[in-house]
Amino acid sequence: MTELYAATPGLTPEEFSRDFGRMWGATDNTLPILTPERRRATTRMMAERDPAAVAMPLTILRDAPFPKLILSGGWSEAFEVVCDTLARAIGGERAVVPGAGHGVRDPAITADLAALLARTARTI
């Protein structure tokens, strides 16, 4: 993954999506078509930091006095297990946005965030 993110400045969204998919076992026959929505999501993903470079301070997150919400798109059983485990480890809530794919970065999360903030406001 580090190599892919290092090469990102020279890639188009289509190339990044293809290479990312192949990393996870996709073939040319199983790679998703980049619809305008997927292209926007891929472009946002390309601008992010390499996930492999991120250390997760689980204890600090667990002990922090703010609410935590772990979101996922329901696209992968394995990824859902990772998100469930993370939510338990840090005492966070879980929400799944079906159809949001790998990265939940769209307006569908607004309701989940608003509900979390409303519950939190009542407890502060």
Molecular structure report:
The chain is mainly α and 124 residues long. 50% of the residues lie in helices and 6% in strands. The protein contains six helices and two strands; from the N terminus they run H-H-H-H-E-H-E-H. The chain has a two-stranded parallel ribbon with strand order 1-2. Helix 2 crosses helix 3. The longest helix is centred in the last third of the chain and has 14 residues, at 77-90. The radius of gyration is 16 Å and the shape is globular. The N and C termini lie far apart (40 Å). The mean pLDDT is 84.
Quick rundown:
With 124 residues, the chain is mainly alpha-helical. Helices cover 50% and strands 6% of the residues. Strand 1, helix 5 (77-90) and strand 2 form a beta-alpha-beta unit.
What composes the largest sheet?
2 strands, parallel
Number of helices: 6
Low-confidence stretches: none
Please tell me the overall pLDDT.
Answer: 84
How would you describe the shape? globular
Number of domains: 2
Write the layout of secondary structure elements.
Blueprint: H1 2-7, H2 13-23, H3 36-46, H4 58-63, E1 69-72, H5 77-90, E2 93-96, H6 110-123
Distinctive features:
124 residues, mainly alpha, two-stranded parallel sheet, 6 helices, globular
